[in-house]
Amino acid sequence: MNPEIVCTIAGSDSSGGAGIQSDLKTFHCFGLHGTAVLTAVTAQNNQQLSELAYLAPEFIAAQLAALQTNLAPKAIKLGLLGRQETLRVLENYLAGYSGPVVLDPVLRSASGAHFVSVALKGYLDRLRRFLRFVDVFTPNRFEAEQLLNRPLRDAREIQQGAEALLSLGAKSVLIKGGHFHDPLFSQDYWTDGKTSFWLANERACRLNYRGTGCALSAALTACLALGYEIKDALVVAKMYVNRGIRKAAVLPGKAAWLYHGDWPEEETDLPYLSDDYQAELKPPFPLLEERSLGLYPVVDRFSWVEQLLPCGLKQLQLRVKDKEGSALEAEIRQSVALAKQYQARLFVNDHWELALRYGAYGVHLGQDDFQRTDFEKLRKAGLRLGISTHGYYEMARAHALRPSYLAFGPIYHTTSKAISLPPQGISRLKRWRRTLSYPLVAIGGINSERISEVCSTGVDGVALISAITQAPDPLKATLELLTRVSQHDPHAK
Fold it and tell me: pLDDT band at residue 177, thresholds of 50, 70 and 90?
């Protein structure tokens, strides 16, 4: 199978730490074939930029034409452009291009040297008009301030600045926060005008990390070429750069070369994603006394709880979607009380206030439930929290709350819930098991034929709905499934 083709249109860094050299390393790490169109050649090292030569616009156009014959890219990353003539060539090319375009507007080097030293005002004016071709615009603070001609001093001004950049034509904007003076976090802000969020990571030691912006935009381009939605792609790209900083090779003069590896898979690099600027790391929810959740039925009535608990289940989830008022309250009250009699852990789906009122063991929430939930009340009451996730964006959003466990799916096609997302599959479940320290529950389309494959990934729980509630003999099915799950339990003594 041939790899997808991606293209970097940027300058060459003679030191190998940034520019097309960094981009091509990044593309390779994501299993892609990277092509390169040079816009400029630099003479620089880890300390300074000594010379800069731009390529003629005719030669840039010739490179693009040569690649277009049989190496047309699935996605394009733009870096150092530097001249209005280069922007004019790219406008002509991108007018007929339909794939995603990511622009990292390189205006100065990591050492502080300006790449646009002649007619900066004219170049910035042209760059503003050029933004209509860009799907994701990734300026740092300095670059955003230059384009907006005003300072960005705090979270509110960053958000306003991103909206102003959208108004210039960019389809979405990520303002990078590495240059802001936050002692705890480095925080980036992304918006497309409809959705917005902050991505936070604990700040690394103060070094001059070469090529972070190049690697971030290249990793983002790679993920878009691989078919990831933009919100998921942003999280993966952040993980890639966070790991690159964490494992960077330190050089003399407080400089460092970013580490380039394969797909990022370590939880320490997963950003905390939140709707608001994060002033502090939230305290974690209580741990599960027993990490293993084992067989984890999801049922919609107290009558199911009453039938299944005598089978020896250690936990259930009550998900009632078709009752309100006193009828709903009765279902939850009775289920919580009976679970306590059996010393089983009962998680109430969605209805956190009733779970709190009747002393449920925990609450399970979907991503759509966040806005109407008081997480601090749940934490203070000592309830456990489980959160459903379907990809990197939702995993990072859940990670910011530091829950008791995470659920991931749908692993297979399912009809139990209206989900527009495609099945995630066993390979992605394995990847999350390698990445996360949280207890991990698999859910979605799992039945008796598939359960062994799911359990072999090392997950801590398997959530089932129709495999039990629609079985000809639900109690017999439950006992058989309990036996099969226990055989694979990595925490069994």
Answer: confident
